[in-house]
Amino acid sequence: MAEIEWKGAVWKAAYGELSVKDLLTTLKGYGPLEILEFEKAGASRGLISLCLSEDGTREVTIHHLEILGRKRNGQGRATVQWLRAIFKGDIHVDYPEFSAKDEALVVSLPFWVRMYRERSIDGLDGMFCLYPKMDESQICKIEKDIHSLLSSDKAAPGGDESHR
User: Fold this and answer.
1) Where are the domains of the chain?
2) Of 11, 57, 85, 120, whose CB is crowded by the most CB atoms within 10 A?
3) Which tens digits make up the pLDDT trace of 62-117?
4) What pTM was computed for the model?
5) In the 8-state DSSP scheme, what is residue 162?
């Protein structure tokens, strides 16, 4: 499987095989939709899909983002901003549906709302959806619903803060 270092990260196809040429073509925004893995040494790794939208702009969808290392504060924001800078297109987050057991996913929802408010991402798709040009009342309602979800999780048996 081809791996290349490009723009400060190591990239490879997440599924199947891509040649170095096809991988570079995709990264530069000229190939078909592909799902790619990346890793910035010691900082982050993730899974994204990359394609051209109907209007010819690049569209990045983050499927998974993991922050690495001990110093995590600000690394998520920096990685999202880095993705926007290198691809110069819309950034969407495909947030997985989760069960009560997926507590770690739930607690990252406020982060994604902050990224949306800061215009670091253009949308979020999942249990809660954020889309371009939402009005403030809609965003506040989603924040309130997320807060309620997180609060109810803390009140549930075994839902204390000690293991987070």
Assistant:
1) 3-163
2) 11
3) 999 999 987 778 899 999 999 999 999 899 999 876 665 565 567 788 999 999 99
4) 0.85
5) G
6-24 pLDDT, tens digit each: 999 999 999 988 999 999 9
Under 8 Å between Cβ of 29 and 50: yes
C-alpha 6 chain-centroid distance: 19
Length of the chain in terms of residues written: 164
Decide the pairing of beta strands 123-125 and 9-13.
unpaired
Q: Can you list the positions of beta strands (E) in 41-149?
A: 44-52, 58-67, 90-94, 123-125
**Count of H helices and E strands in the chain?**
5, 7
Rg (CA), the chain: 17
Residue 164 amino acid letter: R
Q: How many Å separate Cα 88 from the centre of its chain?
A: 15
Asked if 60 and 48 touch (Cβ cutoff 8 Å), the reply is yes
Contact (CB, 8 A) for 139 and 115: no
Instruction: For residue 130, give the DSSP letter.
Output: B
C-alpha–C-alpha distance, residues 139 and 111, integer Å: 13
